[in-house]
Every structure is written in structure tokens, then in C-alpha cells.
Amino acid sequence: MTTSTTPTVNEQKLMEFVFKTVGDFGAMLNGSLAVIGDKLGLYRAMAGAGPLTPAELADRTDTAERYVREWLSAQAAAGYVEYAGDNRFALSAENAIALTDENSPACVIGGFELMLAAVRSTDRLVTAFRTGAGVGWHEHHQDLFEGCERFFRPGYHAHLVEEWIPAMEGVADQLRSGIRVADVGCGLGASTVLLASAYPASTFVGIDYHDGSIAAAQERAAAAGVGNRTRFEVGRAKELTGTYDLVCLFDCLHDMGDPVGVLRHLRSQLDPDGSILLVEPFAGNAVADNLNPVGAVYYGASTFLCTPNSLSQEVGAALGAQAGEPRLREVAAEAGFTRFERVAETPFNMIFQLRP
Predict the structure, then answer these.
(1) Is 355 helix (H, G, I), strand (E, B) or coil?
(2) 0.90 exceeded by the pTM?
(3) Helix (H) or strand (E) holding 74
């Protein structure tokens, strides 16, 4: 006969956890409220406007005052706007940058669109957990594609040309002289357009399997005035053809089913003196190193997006968004790369240069 013991419960720890979950309830709701504020232009209307009443904000945005009043109260409780008294609310200059200035590396508004689109697949993920089947990138809500670009683009805008490219040995000079560049998993083309705008002597090819993203990338390249030096193709990474001096993978290798096979194929398309620019989510070398707010976001996003997408493809390696440098180095070595160097990092990304 076995006996079980009832664990001793620390009431203080229990209540601390309960209040933590209450905070998470608010965070879940606030993510959706932030998307509402973005889509309706509420944050933009408040930026630099000083204290506003709900009626004044509703008038500026052609929205209903009663909804705006409740939204403002929720935003004030969450610390996103400030209650100025006398039924007026204000958006601080600092919060306005984070919520409206998409040229700033501090801008976070796209992340809300991305995360909300991800959690809309909750029911699909429940089934996937039970069956082990994958869920492709294209199977998620439409907002995922734009949200992903808006989440990563401010970081690319701030660091790609000014820091990451110069940190790679010889690459900046090559780009200025004129080389052939491929942007694999290019999505809506934010990274492709940034590079093409900065290096007019070079030519660029973007490839992504999601046809809707490729159509948008073509439009954005044309609008930026670089359409004559860029082209975009619908296809998977292993379908890239041609020879290139630089191949870029921005926050996408870990999403792929066969990252070793992809890098091996890209190596075969690379000029002998060429390089791979590999940008991956920032991660420590072990789970214990990633138990922090950034790790929570990346592990969560990886559960909803990255791991299911990889499992939906051949091999299904499922590296996950927190693979870490040692695992990425192993993948590169298995693919035949002899030089693998971390050349830069931010709080959100690790940047590597791979060479044959």
C-alpha cells in the first residue's frame, strides 16, 4: 500500500502567483486593445496632442465615444496612457515612440499584431499538440504576415546597414561595388528593400513560399524606387537558383523544416568568396539562460509559429526560436560551412557571418 503526502502550500507564494496570473489576464486583453488602438489610429491621434477627453479622441478618429472611453481607462490601468484628471488622458512622448514611430528601434506596435495573429490559432495548436502534425506559416491569420514585418523592421532599419553589414568582413565594400544578393524567406521584403536602397550598385532577389507576401514585397520595392534592381519569386529556400555573393536569412532559418539541407543548398549557390548573413532570435546556450521576458516571448512565439511551421515541412527539425549559437553552429558545420562567426548582436537578435 502506498501513501501520498499532501505538499505544504506556502500561502504567500500561492497568492503571488495568483496575482501574477491576473496580470497576465490583463496582458492578454491589452494585446488586443493595443491592436485596436493601432488599427483605429487612436495612439497616433494622441501622440503630441496633450491631454484629451474620450469625446475629443473619438472626434479625432471618427470612432464612438463610449468605446473610446472604456479603451482609454483600460490603457491607463495598464500604464500605456496616463490619466491626467478631469476625464482626460495623455500619451507620453516615450510611449508614443514605442507605439507609433515605426522608424524607431524602440517601436513595438507591430509585435502586438504579430502575437494576436499567432494566438488566433490556439484551437489549431490544441489539435497539433495531440497529433504532432505541423501548422504552416500560411495557415495562420492574415495579420501575421504584416505583423511579423512590422515587429522586425524597426530593428533592421536601425541596425542592418549601419551595424550588421559593416561588421561582416569585406561585405560592405562588395555591396558598394555591386554584387548579387539573395534574401531567403524575405516575407514582405522589408530587409530586401532596405539593402537595395542602401546599395544601388547591387542587385537583389527575394524568395518566399508565401505568395501573398511576395506580391506585397513587389509593390513595396516599386514604391521605394528599387523595383528595377530587385525581383521577388515564390518558392522555398531549396528552390533558389543562380549564384550569389551574399545570401541573407533574416529570422527564418529556425522556422524551416530542413535547416541543414537549406544551408547546404545555399552554400552550393554561393560564390567561393561569398558569405551568408544569418540573423536569428537572441538566445542563450541553454534553457536556463533564456528564462527572462525576451525568452518568454520567443519561446511562446516558437510554440505557436516556428516549431509548427518546421514540423509542417520535410525533415521537421524544429530548431525553435531559441536554438542558441552552439546548435546553429552545428547546423552550419553539418551543411559544410567551415567559418561561423557571431559578428553582432542586439537584445533581440544574434547576427552571424557564415563562409564556406
Answers:
(1) strand
(2) yes
(3) helix 65-78
Taking only the tens of pLDDT, the chain with its 356 residues reads 566 678 899 999 999 999 999 999 999 999 999 999 999 999 999 999 999 999 999 999 999 999 999 999 999 999 999 999 999 999 999 999 999 999 999 999 999 999 999 999 999 999 999 999 999 999 999 999 999 999 999 999 999 999 999 999 999 999 999 999 999 999 999 999 999 999 999 999 999 999 999 999 999 999 999 999 999 999 999 999 999 999 999 999 999 999 999 999 999 999 999 999 999 999 999 999 999 999 999 999 999 999 999 999 999 999 999 999 999 999 999 999 999 999 999 999 999 999 99
Reading the block at residue 122, the C-alpha cell is 490556439
The DSSP call for residue 64 is -
Q: What domains are there in the chain, each with its CATH number?
A: 11-100 (1.10.10.10), 150-355 (3.40.50.150)
In the DSSP assignment, the letter for residue 204 is E
Burial of residue 204 (CB within 10 Å: 0-12, 13-18, 19+) is: buried
